[in-house]
Amino acid sequence: MANELHPLLEPYYTETEPDLRKNKLDAYSEDTGTKADQYRKDLYAARHVDKKHPEKPVDRFLFNLISLATIVKSPGLFPKFRKREVLSILSSMQLDERPLQDPECESVLYWEYRNAVRRYIGTCDDPSYGRTLLGMKASDAAGRREKCCDDVWCFSYGVAALVGLEKEMATLCRAANDEYCVLRPDVESLEAEHKKYKKKR
Q1: What is the pLDDT of residue 132?
Q2: Residue 137 β-bridge partners
Q3: Residue 2: inside a domain
Q4: Could you tell me if residue 1 is inside a domain?
Q5: pTM, 2 dp
Q6: pLDDT at 113 (0 to 100)
Q7: Are the C-beta atoms of residues 34 and 104 closer than 8 Å to each other?
Q8: What span, in angstroms and rounded, lies between the C-alpha atoms of 110 and 178?
Q9: Cα(92)–Cα(67) distance, rounded to whole angstroms?
């Protein structure tokens, strides 16, 4: 699958605030009515629209990434039993069979994953992220970066390996790696960075 992004869609996939993303999606002028165009709109609605409170955008993908990372960090006695839970999360994020049947729709999902990873990483810059000593001590920049790397690895490669879903999670893993490397251009790959931190512990 190609990773190329239409220039007119770049502002949509680099913006992380739901309301601003909606404005950019509406302004996207190359709406050809293709399956990929409809899938992009459906993904936005599934991710950001709360039918009970449509005036308050949500981010279900961000919540799902946090849930996937939590599974790795609290796998329980039988981690393989978490497979059904992971499959349910993945199903809610891809909506239907379109990305499995159409390469263009798979590309749409890949970019939506990248945007969710970008938003997650953006939250890691806050001093409250990764607080230590029962939340009383703010973490430093180096500590936040290490924890961020661990979290991104956990909700992609980590959970995929834990429950044996490497094939099913390949698009999310690739998106996590690619967005991490764009935002951290000094790293070779997400996995290499994670191994470096793991070795240091």
Answers
A1: 53
A2: 132
A3: no
A4: no
A5: 0.91
A6: 98
A7: yes
A8: 10
A9: 13
The sign of the CA dihedral 97, 61, 143, 158 is negative
Taking the C-alpha atoms of residue 131 and residue 181, their distance in angstroms, rounded to an integer, is 24
> Tell me, what DSSP letter sits at residue 137?
B
- Give pLDDT < 70 ranges for the chain: 1-3, 29-32, 130-138, 201
Sequence-distant (6+) residues with CB within 8 A of 106 are 1, 99, 100, 171
The whole domain housing 127 covers 7-200
Residue 187 placed within a domain: yes
**Structural domain count of the chain:** 1
